Amino acid sequence: MVKSMTAFAKEQNQGQAGIITWELRSVNSRFLDINFRLPEFLRELETELRNVLKKYLVRGKVDIILNYMSSEASIAPLQVNHALLQQLNKAVEDISNFLMISTVDPIAVLRWPGMLQVQENNTAELKNSILNIFEKALQKLNLAREREGAELTQLILSRLEEILKLINQVASFMPEVLIQQKQRLIERFNEAKVELESERLAQEMVLFSQKIDISEEIERLMIHVAEMKRILQQETNTIGRRLDFLTQEMHREANTLGSKSTHEACIQLAIDLKVIIEQIREQVQNIE
Questions:
Q1: pTM, whole model, 2 decimals?
Q2: Residue 18 φ/ψ region, left for φ over 0, alpha for ψ in the -120 to 50 degree band, beta for the rest
Q3: If both were cysteines, with which of 9, 111, 118, 259 could 140 make a disulfide (CB 3.0 to 4.6 Å apart)?
């Protein structure tokens, strides 16, 4: 299945844990570039989230945003760490006796690292919900990439058919090009008032036909077109880089074909050919 790298997906869930909203945006990139924006207390989930994402995506720049709004039912009761509080109280007594200070700010005590604890069960349930909803969002994103990939496939296939038509037109002009060149040679020798021997004319025509021979370029272009069709219609793995390589090769053959052309119509066809190949290359940049 051909997949585009451009897509958007959003998945929202409202339950006892609160409102969890994932937004995923992906665009084309040579590699897999992942950017998470998570609430600070959920940063520890990033590694696990990355591992889940890699099951679905191979290439693309992906921006991922998690918005979380807790519900009253999801707010876990706070527990004071009594063991730490006793140690802190003893330390405060020692300092108070030494400095003759008797007042302690309770809020400052609560801010002490590790003084307040949250029930682990509530946190674990929230994290499980976040992971499950994230996977659903990824599935939506994947479906969107597949839909656009199918459209890109049809667009590229139609362009490939245009390339085949242009190649056939170029090939059909070759007999006419040889006839025109033969006529030019005869006219030049007549202008120079030099008698042209049939053997010399044959030699000149052989040299010219070798110089403008584009059969190799045409054959390679047709092979590249056939291979690109096969990849688009049969391959199931990531194909973007392979298609990009083929478009580069097709562009090179089209350049050579244009440089060998001496017929005005062939030159124009070579230009049209390069325009279509460039259009394909731009679309291939979006394929995973």
A1: 0.71
A2: left
A3: 9
